[in-house]
Every structure is written in structure tokens, then in C-alpha cells.
Amino acid sequence: MLSGLQRVLIVDDDALVADTLRMIFDRSGFRSTACYSADQALACAREFTPDLLLCDISMPGRDGFDLVRTMTSELPSCRILMLTGLYSNLHKVKEHARRLARPIRVLIKPCPPNDLLREANAILAGV
Q: Would you say residue 3 has pLDDT above 60?
């Protein structure tokens, strides 16, 4: 696994989800932090400089896509993995993700921790 000192910024407006994901990544050898809004995540990212942004799509205020556009501009080396609980909108979400400046992978939540970690490691490895 590549997780060594990789930094993961987790963003979800549901604090329980964000904190649980942070715990999963921390226990798997990553250095992670959780934020509960896009604005909070941007402020944190500027100091934390994550290697991977794990971001919910639907959030109050700025949504995940807006956060991704800003992050790709400000931190171009940060890889991105998006989560959505809206399975019925998955096709639209993936279509929107394809139109972003760089390819973005999308997973449905809840996602088994092993699948999430496997996807995160693949993204960080450039696979």
C-alpha cells in the first residue's frame, strides 16, 4: 500500500460520516483530517496540502463540484475522489465529473472501507 504519509482531506456535511471516514484512513496509515463544509475544507487545504481530497457531492452552500473546481486550481497535484449517496443521479454525477478539468472518480456511499481504501490507493498510485 502507498498510504505511508499520504494526506487525505475528507469533506462531508454529515459529521458522523466525515469523522468515520477519517478514522478509517487514520487506522490504515494515512494522515487525515475531516471538514464539514466546502469553505472549511478550502481553508484547511491551504495549510494541510492534501494528496487526496475525498469529497461528498451534495452539501449545503458550495457543493462538492464547486470545491473540486477550486481545489484543482489552487492545489493541482491533489487527487480527487468524490462520494455520493444519490444512486439515482449517478449517471448525471459521472457525466458532470467527466466535464471537470481532470478526471474524477465517483463512488456510491455507503462504500465498504476496503473498497474505499483500494480506490484511494489506486488514485494515489496514478492507476
A: no
